[in-house]
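Subgroup meeting minutes
Present: P.N., E.W., G.H.
Scribe: E.W.

1. P.N. recapped why we're keeping a running log of single-chain structure predictions: easier to compare across weeks, and new members can see raw inputs and outputs side by side.
2. G.H. added today's entry (226 aa).
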Amino acid sequence: MATGFADVQRNNVKKNKGTRTIFERITEATEGESKTFDWYRGKVASIASEYRKDPSKVLREQAGDPEPGGDGNVLRRYPVEGHLYMFEYEAISKYLPYYDTFPLVYVVKVLPGKEFVGANLHYMNPKKRIKAVQGLMKGKVDLPKICFHKYLDKHVEGYMLDLHIDEWDTAILLPVENFVTRVRGFKFPYKKEDVWQETNEKFYDKIKGTRMIDGYGNKQSKEMVK
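Output recorded in log:
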């Protein structure tokens, strides 16, 4: 189980043929050794440039992986509480000043009517994401309120990528946040730096609690998020 960058050791290094996910490529690069945050930041930056303009490539790779589940991640149709997901999303509210079309969401509550509430970690800069994830790994929810949003299942485009906890350290560094704003029905890019600045200004207005983990009806789905 990952406990933070300095302690991460990837023991299950597999040499896959054909399509490999970015998570598998990072794992192979560690050669099973513990790596620091600086190493991960540099390695992710060198590999992930191809994802910056095409975030959904992460999902397409997972779907085409010749060893489904080889990196521990699983494509899902619906979320459960206590898991971390990547997915494509198209918000419709005209009152949102901006939103992320490829969020990284820690789900805290699944609501009736096919809705769920979660914290999009992309609203924080990468360094703050690290501390947030380390807290989640220890069973603590300690996140700025500005990160929390309600999502509608019907506006999730395609599958959701349920991230194994061993891949969270890679996921939070991927440059796939894609903030946009709507003006008269048209979408325009919104600077992530402006989002991070607003989060910094409201950072200490937080929601705190104990992390609750649900599964998909089997032991493995709970183990993957511990």
